[in-house]
Amino acid sequence: MLFRSRFLLSHSAPFTVEMDTVEGKKGGPVLLSLEWKENSLIRFHKREYNDARSVKEIFDDYEKRLGLDIFKKLFPVLLTDRGSEFTDPSALEFSPFTGERRSYVFYCDPQRADQKGAIENCHSLARRMIPKSEDLGRWTQEVIDEVGDHLNSYPRKKLMDKSPYDSFSFFLGDDIPNLLNWEKIPPKDIHLNPHYFRNKLK
Question: What is the maximum span of the chain, computed from C-alpha positions, in angstroms?
């Protein structure tokens, strides 16, 4: 972690994106979770298998949708644990289309999940809508995106009662949320309970 701190200082990286896996029913689909730590903004991506290939495909899709320059802006540094799904850092760090470096991947120290504590805390909020051992096979990416939209629209004390969406947009603008179809939910329409989302499942 000291090496990462020195890297951030020397490269003027604006923020870190923490990365993890959210498991559902044992042996079923999982979610890749990504949190922009400084803004508490989180997104989830459904994966049928918890492997390195599925993680790579998600980042490649981000680059396709955003282009390499915006990708670099969105993912300057990735921090994760040493799970088997994250064991191919080069596949995430380099573009499969141009071969250029697009990000830097760092790992927490062994047995130090607290070093990515921001995303762990956000998972606790997410579990209000997606309980542990949930069968994620029933959840579409569309509904999972809604979970992210509701979480990111919910004001946080640590953000001076601003929402993660507002904080992210203030620092990085609205272009990225618009390109990725992220939606800000009006305060009166925010839901942080499983029943609202369960009614949308298959």
Answer: 49
CA–CA separation, 172 and 74 (whole Å)? 9
Which of these, 157, 187, 202, lies nearest to 40 by C-alpha position?
157
Instruction: Count each helix (H run) and each strand (E run) in the chain, helices first.
Output: 9, 5
Whole-structure pTM value: 0.91
The DSSP H or E segment spanning 41 is: strand 41-47
Within 10 Å of residue 64's Cβ, how many Cβ atoms?
Answer: 12
Query: What integer pLDDT is reported at residue 13 of this predicted model?
Result: 55
Which of the residues in the chain have pLDDT under 50? 1-3, 5-6, 8-10
User: 74: burial class by Cβ within 10 Å (0-12, 13-18, 19+)?
Assistant: buried
Opening angle at CA 125, ends 121 and 130, nearest 5: 125
**Which token pair is 32?**
């890749």
At residue 28, the 3 state secondary structure works out as coil
- CA gap 22, 180 in Å, rounded: 21
Residue 1: its pLDDT value, please?
43
